[in-house]
């Protein structure tokens, strides 16, 4: 139940810079997701908050208190590891009780608290088992219980769902979000799964190569991506990008021409930019057969998914865009179609810096 | 029909047969020793004529009688106890030091860590016999003046010296075991408020139980079997030196020595019968596969 402030955190391992001047504020009771590909430094950042890694430079504050030099045990954080790190030689009860035993809490209090947290996570019938006697989902709950039992100010989670199978993951996802809000605990959640981040977090910080690219609410990072990387990382399938040339008020996209979207008219004029990346999400476009203003191409492939289908359209040789189409619509391979993006949802990126034009 | 990977390979029996044939002299030797210990005379060939069963040898061994005629007696129980003291002492010291040193070599950064590991490997390759002059010099230099300490001191010294020979290998072995344990276990303990030493004792040690048992057993066997160091430094006898001393004595009754030899071999045989499961045994669960 603290606000976490990271002020210019840099972490180097030898010559390798894992974290590069990261500044981030995580509000009290907020659920913050650190999202990035593997090797981006998101776990390093989490472990730096926990105190396992000491930043090479920069300060960490919990509320107003500078905790940069405070050892992990005195930071009052709970950490759930990706592999859960349950002690295999201890029963579930002992696993959960371990942090309290280290604090030399009285026996009755330990018993009471362990039972409480076990009940909350629906594992109170498993306390006598060993970790290897539990299913993946149950082990994961034990790991969360162990992190929560000492009533930490901050809950840190390092890809806690990545070892669960897909269905269970969806279930735990909803539950974890609910739990965090019920407890009113500040949570930092590391994941490489964009769907998890979008579904659970209050705000998402997208990290690449040790730098934060964008921080914002799920809606904001999804619809107003600051970088091509952010747009290409979020969504499944991610945003489509095609190269476009600006000719006055018209965008030339291979054989097609469409007007510059309204929201970009002034920006394009002001920046006097000629080469852009044209981005739109697969859900924010439709495929039509009649003559319309849009991106012309032919159907390369289509994948029915039940309620809808993903159609891959070849705009040029080796240039493809993916668009969702309603179920029941029939396509033929090689059929000539036009992709009409929803104008309001189009994002234009500078080709060189790959930054969205409105953020330039 | 068996699964592909468990199906015996073609011609596997040839390999098994070859191995069996190659180890035949050894197996035969041990077999003759054990058979002889239950016989009135030594069984030295495969004919059963010389085998006249008796358990007299074993009775004599435990009564400490070295010759059938009875005159010379030695307390074999005390000798076995001596052997046990040396073996357990070596085992204990080796286990304690190698679990601590293995942990720090595996987990901590300090100056000279790489050099130390290199030296350990070199030390392991160094034969104990080659060191004995120096080790003896040290023994003489530290030898106590007070006569009542002398025997105790010789035990102390032989245990220490023999353990020192085992330690390089054991430290490497333990380092390997610690290396297999993911950092998360340790981090988890540290975040929950445990000190490094507590993490080592309460989390790490239970996780590498098979390794500890292996090192302890190797240490035990080293102490139990050792001849040269015990012979040089220990004032009392152990089974090894006892057998060695009596094997060519005129008065000794060979089947009796065979019984003592079998007794001496017992831990080794037991170890190799049980070690495989022990070393393969490991924890699973609580951590992803």
UniProtKB/TrEMBL annotation, chain B:
GO terms, biological process: maltodextrin transmembrane transport
What Gene Ontology terms describe what this protein does at the molecular function level? ABC-type maltose transporter activity
The cross-references to InterPro entries, in alphabetical order and at most eight, read: BP-dep_ABC_trans_perm (IPR050901), MetI-like (IPR000515), MetI-like_sf (IPR035906)
Listed transmembrane segments: 12-38, 84-103, 115-139, 151-173, 203-224, 256-275
Q: Which GO terms describe its cellular component?
A: plasma membrane
Membrane topology per record: Multi-pass membrane protein
CDD domains named among the record's database cross-references: TM_PBP2
The answer to keyword Cell membrane applying to this record is: yes
Q: Where in the cell is it found?
A: Cell membrane
Q: Which Pfam families match?
A: BPD_transp_1 (PF00528)
Which intervals hold domain ABC transmembrane type-1? 80-275
Asked if the Swiss-Prot or TrEMBL record annotates the protein with the keyword Chaperone, the reply is no
As for family, the record states:
Belongs to the binding-protein-dependent transport system permease family. MalFG subfamily.
Q: What is this protein called?
A: Carbohydrate ABC transporter permease
Q: Which organism is it from?
A: Thermococcus litoralis
């Amino acid at each position: 139940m603290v606000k976490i402030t990271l002020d210019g955190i840099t972490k180097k391992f030898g010559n390798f810079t894992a974290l590069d001047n990261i500044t981030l504020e995580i509000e009290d009771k907020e659920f913050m997701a650190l999202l990035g590909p593997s090797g981006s430094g998101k776990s390093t950042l989490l472990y730096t908050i926990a105190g396992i890694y000491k930043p090479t430079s920069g300060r960490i504050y919990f509320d107003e208190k500078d905790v940069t030099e405070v050892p992990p045990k005195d930071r009052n954080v709970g950490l759930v590891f990706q592999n859960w790190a349950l002690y295999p030689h201890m029963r579930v009860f002992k696993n959960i009780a371990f942090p309290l035993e280290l604090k030399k809490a009285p026996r009755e209090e330990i018993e009471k608290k362990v039972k409480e947290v076990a009940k909350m996570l629906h594992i109170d019938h498993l306390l006598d088992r060993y970790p290897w006697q539990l299913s993946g989902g149950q082990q994961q709950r034990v790991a969360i219980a162990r992190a929560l039992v000492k009533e930490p100010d901050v809950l840190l989670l390092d890809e806690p769902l990545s070892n669960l199978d897909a269905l269970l993951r969806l279930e735990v996802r909803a539950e974890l979000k609910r739990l965090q809000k019920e407890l009113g605990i500040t949570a930092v959640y590391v994941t490489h799964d964009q769907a998890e981040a979008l579904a659970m977090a209050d705000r998402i910080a997208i990290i690449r190569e040790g730098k934060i690219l964008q921080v914002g609410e799920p809606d904001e990072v999804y619809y107003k991506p600051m970088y091509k990387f952010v747009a290409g990382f979020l969504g499944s399938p991610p945003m489509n990008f095609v190269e476009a040339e600006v000719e006055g008020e018209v965008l030339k996209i291979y054989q097609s021409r469409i007007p510059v979207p309204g929201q970009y008219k002034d920006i394009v004029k002001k920046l006097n930019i000629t080469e852009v990346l044209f981005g739109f999400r697969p859900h924010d476009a439709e495929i039509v057969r009649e003559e319309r203003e849009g991106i012309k191409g032919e159907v390369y492939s289509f994948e029915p998914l039940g309620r809808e289908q993903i159609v891959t359209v070849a705009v040029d040789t080796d240039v493809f865009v993916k668009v969702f189409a309603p179920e029941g619509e029939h396509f033929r391979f090689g059929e000539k179609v036009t992709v009409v993006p929803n104008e309001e949802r189009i994002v234009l990126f500078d080709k060189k810096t790959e930054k969205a034009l409105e953020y330039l | 029909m068996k699964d592909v990977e468990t199906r015996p390979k073609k011609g596997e029996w040839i390999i098994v047969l070859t191995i069996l044939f190659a180890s035949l002299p050894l197996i035969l030797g041990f077999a003759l020793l054990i058979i002889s210990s239950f016989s009135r005379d030594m069984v030295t060939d495969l004919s059963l004529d010389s085998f006249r069963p008796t358990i007299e040898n074993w009775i004599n061994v435990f009564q400490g009688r070295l010759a059938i005629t009875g005159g010379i007696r030695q307390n074999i129980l005390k000798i076995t106890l001596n052997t046990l003291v040396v073996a357990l002492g070596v085992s204990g010291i080796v286990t304690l030091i190698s679990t601590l040193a293995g942990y720090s070599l595996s987990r901590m950064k300090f100056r000279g860590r790489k050099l130390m590991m290199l030296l350990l490997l070199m030390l392991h390759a160094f034969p104990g016999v080659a060191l004995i002059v120096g080790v003896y010099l040290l023994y003489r230099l530290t030898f106590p003046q007070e006569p009542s300490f002398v025997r105790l001191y010789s035990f102390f010294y032989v245990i220490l010296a023999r353990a020192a020979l085992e330690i390089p290998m054991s430290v490497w072995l333990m380092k390997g075991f610690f290396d297999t344990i993911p950092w998360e276990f340790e981090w988890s303990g540290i975040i929950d408020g445990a000190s490094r030493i507590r993490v080592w004792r309460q989390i790490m040690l239970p996780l590498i139980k098979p390794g500890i048992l292996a090192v302890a057993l190797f240490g035990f066997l080293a102490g139990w079997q050792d001849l040269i160091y015990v012979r040089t430094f220990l004032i009392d006898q152990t089974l090894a030196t006892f057998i060695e001393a009596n094997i060519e004595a005129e008065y000794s009754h060979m089947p009796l020595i065979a019984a003592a030899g079998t007794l001496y071999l017992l831990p080794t045989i037991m170890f190799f019968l049980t070690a495989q499961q022990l070393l393969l045994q490991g924890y699973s669960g609580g951590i992803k596969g």
